[in-house]
Amino acid sequence: MNRELVSTPAHATLQRIVVWFRLLAYAWMMALVSATVLDDPGASRLWVAAAVGVATALTASTFVMGHLRLLDSWWWVVVDGLGTVFILISPGISGSSDLFYGGFGLSWLLLVVWAFPAVLPTAVAIAAVITAQLIGNAIGVRRTSMTNTVGDVAVWVVSGIVYGWAFWAIRATDVERRRAEDALAQERVERSLAEARATIADDIHDSVLQTLAHIRAHSTDPAAVGAATAQDRELRRYLERLSAAHPDGFEILLRGAAWEVEDRHGVTIEVVAVRDCPGGPAVEALVGAVREAMTNAAKHSGASSVSVYSEVEDEAIKVYVRDTGSGFDPEALTPGRGMRHSMHGRVERHGGAVTVSSAPGRGTEVLLSIPREPS
Fold it and tell me: What is the rounded average pLDDT for all residues in the chain?
């Protein structure tokens, strides 16, 4: 059973329909019982009274259980079903020449499809009322043709299907509406957070970063200039995190790796990131390989800067690491060892690939890519 269906506001609304239909079914039955008592002297008054007593008790209990929010408890549905089966059989037991249970069987079907919105409980309930109907016909004095029997069975089957489908459609619509409202609320929260992050970033940029830039430009104390430079770099990294679509996603991991290489090797690494995506094992492996490519460029190319371009596509994530340094001959690397082996190993475990393009005196370009992980 889909628990999401019974947690919707529509579930409580439909409960009122179940309760008041039970009252209607009881009134319907009482009208038929009155006709039976007046016009059918062959019907046992004792058995008719017993059916009325059970129907009265179940109807009153329906209101009580609804008030206590126990109406959809499985044990109550079973108890109510046993009582309903007796009421359906009672015309046959009493020797009535006609049926007097009214809409009580339909009322129980409505309770079942409301309490348990699934195919199996509905099928069991339909089978139970059909069986009770056939038993009552078999033991009673009422004579039914094949057409009457087929008609009785069809009423139960069609009623169960129609009730079940109608209640499911109402609650499914409610579920979709609630999902849409939740998505809209989440969008509003994310938009508010983005606006808050932008406000914080603007405030830091307009105050702290400008002050640090002034210190760097006018201070004659090397220690103060160094401290201002380091603080400026840390604040700019913080602003990068604020502006990222995923604070712990691919772009921040990539920029963090670039900052780490910058600090260790004293080179400038320019990162351009097109789109972002959440992190994950494959993303972390890709960033690790990119970090290695940047480190190799910083250590061996002789260039003072390295450019990194990343693009998150629908099916894959691609990163280009370029330098304009001394370059090398990729074919001269020993197979299975060194940079080529290490970077390949990181990404190939996640279905990715590495392509190294270089030539002596013409710089190096490394293309690293992995397939996108499912969201």
Answer: 86
DSSP string, 308-352: EEEEE-SSEEEEEEEE-S----GGGSPTTSHHHHHHHHHHHTTT-
Residue whose pair of structure tokens reads 């210190």 in the numeric block: 215
Determine, yes or no, domain membership for 322: yes
71 touches 62 (CB < 8 A): yes
DSSP 301: S
Residue 257 has pLDDT above 70, yes or no: yes
Which residues are CB-contacts of 97 (< 8 A; sequence separation ≥ 6)?
A: 40, 42, 43, 141, 142
For 171-219, the pLDDT digits (tens) are 888 888 888 888 888 888 777 766 776 677 666 666 666 776 767 677 7
Residue 89 burial (CB count, 10 A): 23
Same domain, 88 and 12: yes
Q: Which amino acid is at 344?
A: H
State residue 117 phi and psi, 5-degree precision: -75, 75
Q: What average pLDDT does the segment 222-247 reach?
A: 69
Which residues touch 147 (CB under 8 Å, ≥6 apart)? none
Question: Is residue 95 one of the residues assigned to a domain?
Answer: yes
Strand partners, 274: 311
Q: What is the DSSP letter of 7?
A: G
- What is the span of the domain harbouring residue 154? 5-182
Q: Domain check: are 34 and 123 in the same one?
A: yes
Residues in the chain: 375
pLDDT digits (tens, 9 = 90+) for 137-168: 889 877 777 887 888 889 899 999 999 999 98
Q: Yes or no: say if 117 and 6 are a contact pair by the CB < 8 Å rule.
A: yes
Q: Specify whether the CB–CB gap between 348 and 341 falls below 8 A.
A: no
Bridge partner residues of 368 (DSSP)? 319, 354
Classify burial at 142, counting beta carbons within 10 Å of its beta carbon; exposed 0-12, middle 13-18, buried 19 or more.
middle
Q: Is 305 helix (H, G, I), strand (E, B) or coil?
A: strand
* Residue 25, both tokens: 């079914």
pLDDT at 337 over 60: no
Concatenated DSSP letters of 257-294: HHHHHHHHH--EEEEEEES-----HHHHHHHHHHHHHH
The single residue listed with the structure tokens 């600090």 is 263
